[in-house]
Amino acid sequence: MERVSDILNEPIEIRDPVKPHALRSAQPAIDSSVPGEIQFDQVWFGYKSDEFVLRDLNFTIRPGEKVALVGPTGAGKSSIIRLLCRLYDVTQGRILLDGEDIRDLPQAELRRRMAVILQDGFLFAGDVKSNITLGESYSIDQVQRAAEQTNVAKFIEQLPQGYNTQLRQRGTNLSGGQKQLLAFARAAIRNPPILVLDEATANLDVGTEAMIQEALERLLEGRTAIIIAHRLSTIRNVDRILVLKQGQLVESGSHEELVEQGGLYASLYRLQMLESE
Ligand SMILES: Nc1ncnc2c1ncn2[C@@H]1O[C@H](COP(=O)(O)OP(=O)(O)OP(=O)(O)O)[C@@H](O)[C@H]1O
Ligand SMILES: [Mg+2]
Asked: In terms of DSSP bridges, do strands 126-127 and 166-167 run parallel, antiparallel, or are they unpaired?
């Protein structure tokens, strides 16, 4: 009980600003048809105060640009995502979304602007439909359209009760690929200006991989995107690749440019080529 109440009594560090920007200005909350801009400005971050896992990150992702984050395990890729959706606050520097410091936005507003698809997407015990709507009031037509867009409709229709089929907790009755497609449908129905994807590491068969790739490309259209790719084959088409090493940005460029440079990306790429042979 003591340990539980210690946790319950922890102060909440991430809070909404007293005067949130979006509320202060009379502008409409978000326009989903316009992709967002993301800027990291001299960002430093550590989970512990004496240990930085991100060091002096500076980059801008233009509206509509698709950027991939690549780097060895522990380089800080997922940490960048956690900062962007404000699960943690930066230690130094700032992160701007369409020119506004994310600490000045109400958290609900910030999170409405982006869909985040995580390494281990979470499925709830409940039916397929509510796993896509997540409690919001979308019509069944909208659910179906999102599922079609993301290549998961055919699979759902084959289930015994279609969209009303019950899923087991954590989706243990689904394959890794199916879970990923369902997570895409969740994002598609919300139509956010920004999409963030931390790619699942699970090995997928060639057919599923192709289906996911196709659904992803459709999902990315007209949005700004950050993709953390473990399989470098998924990111051949992105506009720019940012390479991280021990929390620092060490390379940036297109796939061809980085292979040409012969640095860290080139060696990661060569390693994966060898593995897949
Ligand atoms: N909650 C946490 N508390 C303390 N340290 C953490 C926490 N999460 C991550 N770290 C540390 O921060 C560093 C960066 O981790 P991060 O998860 O961002 O790596 P990553 O690049 O996403 O790696 P992977 O490719 O394995 O997913 C690592 O050294 C990790 O051990
Ligand atoms: Mg990670």
From this structure: antiparallel
